[in-house]
Write a structure and sequence with these properties.
The complex is a heterodimer. In chain A, 38% of the residues lie in helices and 19% in strands. Chain A has 17 helices and 15 strands. In chain B, strand 2 and strand 3 form a beta hairpin. In chain B, helix 1 crosses helix 2. The chains are: A alpha+beta, B mainly alpha.
């Protein structure tokens, strides 16, 4: 392996010669109470190997049985993705040797996915792009490995590995797109918008927490380049486990630049998996595609085929949430947002957060202002997506409530946000512990107003002469004296009263 | 009826996928035996016409589901009892090679 820095062609330059072709695979962990094929619980964060049984440990003689709720969720997801639902399909064994599955195979679906041939439309910068869905199939999650020895906790240099199978067998749905070819400069944003919209859809369906930061939704990004005007698809790389919406965008961008540099130099792209690094937005070589990828799929003999009754499928269709495009249109008119307001909100991945903040009592513009301003800045600084910030829509609405009640002002609100994000407690607690409440007590304000008048007799005289605009200087003095915690409106009233 | 094509290389490939260490003489023997076994399968294929769908399960049932209700798991002690080695309540496996 070379240790020289990877050469990249600048994004715009790469697009002057190549058309990117993407494919996205998204794994969604379902929020069922039990695993896919056994009754073990699925709770996150349990002590290791406390949620395992003979079925998910693959012990001899164990008989898996399909979780009805998982099939129902899979069908609802398929319908929401505008897919056909297979009238009859089977599970298959994907055979491989890796200790994350104790059975030596993963139960998945191969050539008979439960849902296929769908699409969703995503909006980027006012344009709508249709993303075709090839399939959505049912499978199970793998266990978690802990690599011991070596310096970095990675496999390289590890002495041995420790396995926790609590996650092994948790229901997963894998959504696979067809190849996505959009104008190159839009490709990274379209990929991000797609993943974002899948998340919103999963949350709306109520089938998954879809938290990328917690691993309940994971994206793999396939990318290849072809020379502009050519029909010849290039060799693709598969960047694994890209764990935020922002990273999806960055991974696409990075791989475009990297592929272009290799192709420009007359080299060829190695078909391999790549690892994405959140820290610097680069990818590094993983595993080359090899014989080991011959998984010898065959139908799972221990599970009966799934043949959803068409009446059941139609019944489930009736439970689908409002389609995303219609929902956005309805919300925009309810909120009185401009097209640009709406585009910004959706683009920031803040739609559901704004919905919840409004439901918790905030006005639409206020909800948007905080999520797209203060909070978006913080998320960006921390390299996180908005939903991953340690603040809830309810807390945002509470902070806005404090402002509406004139107990704090916008400036103090920023400090309340900072406190809540730093884990200092609920907004009320932060206000109390940091002493952030606005002073509207006439006694304290009156004293400060008197000092302001004494400090600036000229301004005071102007106000006496009817020039109310001069009050600004006195208000500024009071605010400074009271370290920003004065109720500016009340201060103004007091000044005008005293100088009338 | 012609024997299905299966070469000595195919046998070696399958053996490596299945992590079965076959000697040269075993490869020679199996390379000859496997086509004969596949011949028998072909007989069955001839018996079934296009109108007979491939069977996937010995019992003709579909939709065998279980409700999404938690049932007791094993204790970690019981789960790990059969493991050759364990540490920190986890299964200990040897160094994993050939993977990032």
């Amino acid at each position: 392996m070379s240790i020289t820095a990877t050469k990249l062609v600048p994004f715009d330059e790469a697009l002057s010669r190549y058309q990117p072709v993407m494919g996205l695979e998204i794994h969604v962990e379902l929020n069922t109470a039990t695993k896919m094929f056994c009754g073990c619980p699925t709770e996150f964060g349990a002590e290791p190997n406390t949620q395992v049984c003979p079925v998910c440990l693959g012990l001899p003689g164990a008989l898996p049985v399909v979780n009805a709720k998982a099939v129902e969720s899979a069908i609802r997801m398929g319908l929401a993705l505008n897919c056909q639902i297979a009238p009859w399909c089977r599970f298959a064994r994907k055979n491989y040797f890796y200790p994350d599955m104790p059975k030596n195979f993963q139960t998945s679906q191969y050539d008979e996915p439960i849902a296929f041939d769908g699409f969703i439309d995503v909006d980027v910068d006012g344009e709508t792009y249709r993303i075709d869905i090839e399939r959505a199939h049912m499978e199970e999650d793998t266990g978690k490995s802990l690599h011991v020895g070596g310096s970095t906790g990675r496999i390289h240099g590890a002495e041995h590995s420790l396995l926790d199978y609590n996650r092994a067998g948790i229901p997963l749905i894998e959504i696979v797109t067809r190849t996505i070819e959009v104008p190159g400069d839009k490709a990274p944003a379209v990929a991000r918008a797609f993943v974002n919209q899948i998340r919103d859809l999963m949350v709306a369906l109520g089938v998954s927490d879809a938290r990328m930061d917690q691993g309940s939704m994971r994206a793999d990004v396939n990318l290849s380049l072809k020379p502009l005007g050519s029909d010849q698809l290039g060799t693709r790389t598969e960047t694994k486990n890209v764990n935020s919406f922002r990273s999806v965008e960055r991974a696409v961008r990075y791989e475009i630049g990297r592929h272009a540099a290799i192709l420009d130099g007359g080299g060829s792209i190695l078909q391999e998996t790549r690892h994405f690094h959140e820290s610097d937005g680069t990818t590094s070589a993983g595993r080359p595609k090899s014989d080991a990828d011959d998984y010898r799929y065959f139908p799972e003999p221990d599970l009966a085929p799934v043949a959803p009754d068409p009446a059941w499928v139609e019944e489930l269709r009736g439970t689908l949430p409002e389609p995303p495009a219609e929902r956005r249109k309805r919300l925009q008119s309810e909120w009185g947002f401009s097209d640009l307001d709406m585009r910004d909100t959706v683009g920031a991945g803040a739609l559901d957060l704004v919905v919840e903040t409004i439901a918790a009592g905030a006005a639409p513009q206020a909800a948007k202002k905080w999520w797209l301003g203060e909070l978006a800045r913080t998320a960006n600084e921390q390299g996180k997506d908005l939903p991953a910030l340690p603040i809830t829509p309810t807390q945002v609405a509470q902070i806005q409530g404090l402002i509406d009640a004139k107990r704090i002002n916008d400036k103090l609100a920023r400090q309340v946000f900072e406190g809540v994000l730093a884990g200092e407690g609920e907004p009320e607690e932060v206000v109390a512990s940091r002493g952030l409440e606005v002073v509207s007590d006439d006694g304290a304000l009156g004293d400060a107003v008197d000092r302001a008048i004494a400090n600036d007799p000229d301004a005071a005289q102007k106000i006496r002469d009817g020039k109310q605009a001069a009050a600004g200087a006195l208000i500024g003095f009071v605010m400074k004296e009271m370290r920003g915690q004065a109720d500016a409106g009340r201060v103004r009233e007091l000044i005008l009263e005293k100088l009338s | 009826m012609s024997s299905p094509e299966i070469s000595r290389d195919d046998v070696a490939h399958l053996a490596s996928l299945a992590r079965i260490d076959l000697s040269e003489s075993e490869l020679d023997r199996l390379g000859a035996e496997l086509p004969a076994i596949l011949d028998y399968v072909q007989v069955v294929q001839q018996a079934a016409g296009d109108d007979v769908p491939a069977m996937s399960h010995p019992v003709p049932v579909t939709n065998v589901f279980r409700p999404d209700e938690v049932t007791p798991s094993l204790t970690p002690e019981a789960a790990l009892a059969g493991a050759p080695a364990s540490e920190e309540q986890r299964f200990l496996v040897p160094k994993i090679l050939g993977e990032e």
